[in-house]
Amino acid sequence: MLEYLLVANENDDEAAADALIEFVERRARAFTASESEEEGEGATAGTATGSSTRGSSTNAGKSVSRKAEAARKPFVNLIPYNPTSAGDRFG
Fold this sequence. Notes:
Radius of gyration: 20 Å
Largest sheet: 2 strands, parallel
Helix content: 40-55%
Shape: elongated
Strand content: 15-25%
Number of helices: 3
Low-confidence stretches: 43-58
Structural class: alpha+beta
Strand order of the largest sheet: 1-4
């Protein structure tokens, strides 16, 4: 998950949205690639014998971690910046 603070007239336009999309997609690809490399180093040992695979699911016979699943489905929490008089007093 990524939290993204929207500031009026700074990062709330189409160009900023496109840049955010590219950033999230690039991070998801990089994370998925690193997960694939780790799995290639023997991370699925024991799954064929019916051992516990808690924290993962099987997709077409291949063990997939929850982190890898989350990376394939990125989540962005958009937070609008709302200045208040209390915030103005305390900087």
